Amino acid sequence: MEPNHERESTVPLPKPEPSQPTSELSKNAKKKLARQERWEAKKADKKAAAKEQKKKETERKRKEWEESIAGITEEERVKVIEARMSLRKERMEKRLEEKNEKKERLVKAKELGQNVVVDVEFSHLMTPQEIRSLVQQIMYCYAVNGRCDTPAHLWLTGCEGEMDNQLKKIPGFDKWIIEKENKSYIEVLADRKDDLVYLTADSEDVLEELDLKKIYIIGGLVDRNRFKGITMEKAQEQGIRTAKLPIGNFLKMSSSQVLTVNQVVEILLKFLETRDWKTSFFAVIPQRKRSQADSEGNADNTVDEDIDEDEEEESEQKDDLLTSKKQCVEEIPSNKLVDEV
């Protein structure tokens, strides 16, 4: 993709070789491995610290509540408690209303929305960490799509093996309003093969417009540039059309051409809303991925040459997921909602 320089795949690829000894890794690979090990080492500490902070915050709110009602009469206390319960009920009702509205939009999109497929049948090409990264991107895709006034009709095809196992671990995944298929899109959508369009940066055809009759496919492979150009090869072998997003018509990319799966989905969703590619690209593509000229030509754009792109991208995804994880859960027990209000 230009969607997807780093996340691409093809059918007949062999399974990756077993992990190399550290001594045989390249300098760049060693740096990435060390960075990953540092991140893993900090992960547990951060999680424990966040848990402790949440516990302290809950305790602080409890004490504030007890102090606020300590010096009032019983009659006043009853009124305060009733008002608090009424506010919680109102918030719960609002959340339920928003959830129902989201459900209605997604159900409507199954009939009238733009079909977008995330092709995830390549878990054998990815490491466990890369599979988890792709699962997180899919979570964000679903969350962003659910927030849209006119969402797309999302598909996940090729959900097998470890990818399928990781997807099923997502809270509420079984209630997602999304097409989930173990088979490949080429099998599931065999009767609509002429409508399939694989989005890949290696295509010579530029996608000028989105057609509701077409089904756009995004390669779901977090490959860290190990498999460049292979979605193009896959599409050619299957005899389906390819296209690339018209990014080059509106901005120049910096040294990194990589866009995540969720960024491509969000660009498509933004275009469905605005029918304007430039607006869609500048709303979604991170500033660090644009060239200096493009950044200077647009307000609020800056480029930091010293940022490590892999770490920056991971940081962006983690920030986004703080919001999207909650939005991916279709049903939460009412008592938990009360506690969180």
How would you briefly describe this protein structure?
This protein is of the alpha/beta class. The protein has 11 helices and 6 strands. The protein has one domain (76-340): Alpha/beta knot (3-Layer(aba) Sandwich), CATH 3.40.1280.
Q: Please, could you describe this protein's structure?
A:
32% of the residues are buried. The protein has one domain: 3-Layer(aba) Sandwich (Alpha/beta knot), CATH 3.40.1280. It has 341 residues and is α/β, with parallel strands linked by helices. The longest helix is centred in the N-terminal third of the chain and has 44 residues, at 27-70. It has a 6-stranded parallel beta sheet with strand order 3-2-1-5-4-6, sandwiched between helices. It is 52% helix and 7% strand. Residues 302-317 have a biased composition (Acidic residues). InterPro entries: MT_TRM10-typ, MT_TRM10-typ_sf, tRNA_m1G_MeTrfase_euk. This is tRNA (guanine(9)-N(1))-methyltransferase. Its EC number is 2.1.1.221.
